[in-house]
Amino acid sequence: MSELYEQLEEYGSSDYYPFHMPGHKRNRESAKGNLAAAYSLDITEIDGFDNLHQAEGVLKREQERAARIYGAEKTYFLVNGSTGGILSAISAVLKKGSRILIARNCHKSVYHGIYLNELEVSYLYPEIIGMCGIAGEITPKSVEDELKGQPDIKAVMITSPTYEGIVSDVKKIADIAHKYGIPLIVDEAHGAHFGFHGDYPESSVKLGADIVIHSLHKTMPAITQTALLHVNGNLVHKQRLERYLRIFQTSSPSYVLMASISYCLDVMENEGMKRLGELKELRDGFIMDVERCSFIKAGVKEMQKTGLRICADPCKLVIYADYGRLTGRQLYEILRDKYHLQMEMAVGNYVLGILSMMDTQEGLDRLAHALLEIDKDISSGKIEAGSVIPAFYGFCEKSGSVMPICQAYDKEQETVKVEEAGGRTAAEFLNLYPPGIPLAVPGERLDKKMAEMLMAYEKAGFHVQGIEDGYVKVLKDNESTKRLKQEKITETEREFIVKEIEKDEKD
Questions:
Q1: Cα–Cα nearest to 333, from 471, 504, 460
Q2: Which residues pair with residue 431 across a beta bridge?
Q3: If phi over 0 gives left and psi between -120 and 50 gives alpha, with beta otherwise, what is residue 466?
Q4: Strand (E) or helix (H) holding 324
Q5: Is the dihedral of CA 282, 283, 284, 287 positive or negative?
Q6: 2: left (phi over 0), alpha (psi -120 to 50) or beta
Q7: What is the distance between the alpha carbons of residues 403 and 392, in angstroms, rounded to a whole number?
Q8: What is the reported pTM?
């Protein structure tokens, strides 16, 4: 049973009067309704409740319990979400200015860690799967090839599972990284439930990764912003890691959030296998129902026709209509507006739904019923096909990096219309959110295709962070760039000017 939660409940019902923070003083009149109950558990680091940044009592025991449950040598509670863990991990294992090898489809927080530590970056590019164009696995061979060719790489970081649930071969990648004497960091934010049931992928904690970050709130019964960071092996300096956890996490951690982590661990330890088994049965029944559709598809079964290795998390539902029949945005809005089913996101021609052990038969039945009705409407012509926008991951390909992120992000900027951005260098991150993976990072050249894709997403109502009122920030033009835009210019002159620009920008 959660020791922390029990202590908080006991203290909340005691006669101790708080002449300390927080300012609501555990007074239920500070809030209305159900929120008031949380206030009674919300305290600061008072006697008997330990300190997250130097845990010696109840929080130390709770973190040790988390490590035991997940099979880690050491586990840390995170109250600033996975973001705080990712920033801490990158800062702990890499010296300023060194080189990191990352999957191009990593979350934007990874790029922020690169910026803060002024890192050089090399990219791993996932395969693109099926008609939905989602990112596949990062192959061990691609990791080996990069490490062979670039001996200055000091760490590898991948995202597994991806937002859509695709899992890489973490064990082989970890073995390769360790062969070169460098650590592997796995952003397993969407896989906190891995390793508790045989029908789900194994946790990266047990597959050899040196640091694994889990977001409990994404697929587990925990409050938003709760996460865990696990450490194994001797390639991570734990004291240095703890230093950065103190830097990137608040000095006043929420006991409500930590109690949620503790209670979530209770559920996983005592009921995890049973609940995940029941969820898999619900999910399989849902897939069987949807297979009656003529046009609507769910899951990754159809995508396996590509011949690529696909290991996927059952908790992720990729739902789409045969290409051209319905856009992801159309399907998303129909499910939300007509059936009151709020999906996680819409991209290209698919929507994504996330399942957890707290889903119900009623919820899955409602979704299956809605999809069957939508399928009939497609068949009868009641739904007119929209203009399908290319999937985001279709553009997750090698781009023209002009200079390191840390340099570009701090250079002089100007704003231009998105349609005029082709050929310019990005000055800010451009993220389609969700999933929060950069379409472009500072220092990358925006080609014409990228500009067209950004316009298409904006027109379709997607939220692209980094675009405001149809304008995007780019590096300010120098004289060479202006010359490059002249209409009458020979190819030889163009090549010379491009080299001149790249040299100038790197300087």
A1: 460
A2: 438, 465
A3: left
A4: none
A5: positive
A6: beta
A7: 23
A8: 0.91
pLDDT at 462: 78
Whether the CB-CB separation of 415 and 475 falls below 8 Å is answered with no
Selection from 76, 89, 53, 37 nearest residue 261 by Cα: 76
Burial of 258 (0-12, 13-18, 19+ CB in 10 A): buried
**The token pair that represents 322 in the structure block:** 């045969």
Residues of the chain where predicted confidence (pLDDT) is lower than 50: 305, 479-480, 483, 487
Alpha-carbon gap, residue 9 to 28, rounded angstroms:
14
User: Coil, strand, or helix at residue 128?
Assistant: strand
DSSP string, 49-83: S--GGG--SHHHHHHHHHHHHHT-SEEEEESSHHH
pLDDT at 301: 56
pLDDT of residue 392: 62
Query: What would the two tokens of residue 107 be?
Result: 């979350």
In angstroms, the CA 169 to CA 368 distance is: 32
Of 143, 139, 171, the C-alpha closest to 156 is: 143
Q: What gap in Å lies between CA 469 and CA 415, rounded to an integer?
A: 11
Please tell me the predicted confidence (pLDDT) of residue 487. 47
Contact 203, 71 (CB under 8 A): yes
Neighbours of 488 (CB within 10 A): 5
Answer whether 194's CB lies under 8 Å from 219's CB: no
Compute, in degrees rounded to 10, the torsion defined by CA atoms 469, 474, 478, 484.
-90
